[in-house]
Specification:
The protein has helices at 26-29, 86-100, 102-105, 112-129, 154-160, 189-196, 238-244, and strands at residues 5-9, 15-23, 41-54, 67-80, 135-147, 177-178, 199-201, 226-229, 235-237. By secondary structure, the protein is an alpha+beta fold. The radius of gyration is 20 Å and the shape is globular.
């Protein structure tokens, strides 16, 4: 990928995150042009995420041999007013890190420090380019890479790999916005229920004891899975329960009511 800046980070054994930034054509990202009568700056970001696995033999920098398992794209935008002081700009950086981008980046098992590094680097890159442009469309190429560990088979590495299909569906989020218009869906109260549910990623075999089996897909929780905890205490794969609750407001196991359908009419 041709970018103006590339960075590699990774604090958890078996996972690495590599990202770079490039300025692209406005029509690639900007779907609604901002007003022309202000001196404000507009940053448009499109995160282009690859979920890959890497064989240990290739070494930590052997990205050319990565096997791509999944992809996803989503858009984020930020407006920086001409008269913003440093306090407001710091607030925008925090909002971008914790809400706009961070909500999805946390699902990739990135640490807070890694999310901060990525978000601050993206904003710094956009700010540099905004010295010569009012609208800055930036592509963020992010490689979420699961690296084979010593003594681990490559198939086991693939099994625990982080992939978008095992996470909450992108369309649940108000931010970020699914880049593919055909996949977008109206934001509903059910989305908030799912997003706010406690979620964990299985890090140890002992986590299997939390869920004897997901009654929705009939599969057990394995290392690397993302699980969601319902209010009633039952546990399911996040991607399984998210799709179930689009059509039902009851726990599949005990029929506990998780939200009211009346909310959907308001």
């Amino acid at each position: 990928m041709a970018t103006s800046r590339q960075i590699e980070i990774g604090s958890r054994m078996g996972y690495r995150y590599e990202y770079g930034f490039s300025v692209v054509e406005e029509e690639e990202i900007v779907t609604t042009p901002p007003p022309l009568d202000t001196g404000d700056k507009y940053f448009f970001f499109q995160f282009r995420v690859r979920f890959t696995v890497r064989k240990r033999e290739g070494g930590a920098a052997a990205g050319d041999d990565d096997v791509v398992l999944d992809r996803e794209r989503y858009n984020l935008s930020l407006r920086r007013r001409e008269n913003d002081g440093e306090r407001r700009r710091e607030g925008l950086r925090t909002f971008f890190r914790k809400i706009l981008a961070g909500s999805r980046l946390r699902d990739y098992w990135m640490s807070d420090d890694e999310i901060t590094d990525l978000c601050h680097s993206a904003l710094e890159f956009a700010a540099e380019k905004s010295e010569r442009a009012r609208i800055v469309p930036v592509a963020v190429e992010l490689n979420v890479c699961s690296v084979q560990k010593e003594g681990e088979t490559f198939e086991a590495c693939r099994e625990r790999a982080i992939v978008g299909s095992k996470l909450l569906p992108l369309y649940l989020y108000l931010y970020p916005e699914e880049a593919d218009v055909s996949r977008r869906r109206p934001f509903r109260p059910h989305n908030l229920v799912m997003i706010n549910m406690p979620r964990i990623r299985v890090e140890h075999v002992d986590r299997n004891l939390m869920m004897e089996g997901c009654t929705l897909c009939k599969g057990n929780a394995v290392f690397g899975d993302q699980l969601s905890f319902l209010t009633c205490g039952h546990v399911f794969h996040s991607h399984c329960i998210a799709r179930r609750l689009e059509h039902s407001n009851l726990c599949p196991t005990c029929s506990f009511q998780l939200y009211s359908f009346d909310l959907l009419q308001n």
